[in-house]
Amino acid sequence: MEKRIGTVIIYVGDRQSAPQLNEVLSRHADIIICRQGFPRQNYSLISVVFEGTTDRIGSLTGQLGRIEGIEVKSALLKPQLNQEANSVEK
Question: Which pTM was predicted?
Fold first, then answer.
């Protein structure tokens, strides 16, 4: 299955959700490239960059979206690096 590169921004409005959030992220550690947290006074933001199949990415974002007190937005890219390299060589 083809891999995608993507990012997700996670709004954590309820810090009580953090253990469940971390558990989901840990289960998907194999696709996570980078994770960055931004703690604020009344909420936190987490930015995650990942690379994986659409099934694994869907599993991650779906599980995150079901956690109460969490909001999730994601964006996916279909890498064209190999196709671009091939077209330049021709």
Answer: 0.81
Q: How many domains does the chain have?
A: 1
CATH number for the domain spanning 50: value is 3.30.70.1150
Tokens of 59: 């599993």
Q: Which range of residues forms the domain containing residue 60?
A: 3-89
How far from 74 is each of 41, 42, 69, 89, CA to CA, in Å?
Answer: 24, 22, 17, 33
| 17-53 per-position pLDDT tens digit | 999 999 999 999 999 999 999 999 999 999 999 999 9
Compute the distance between CA of residue 72 and CA of residue 65 in angstroms, rounded to an integer. 6
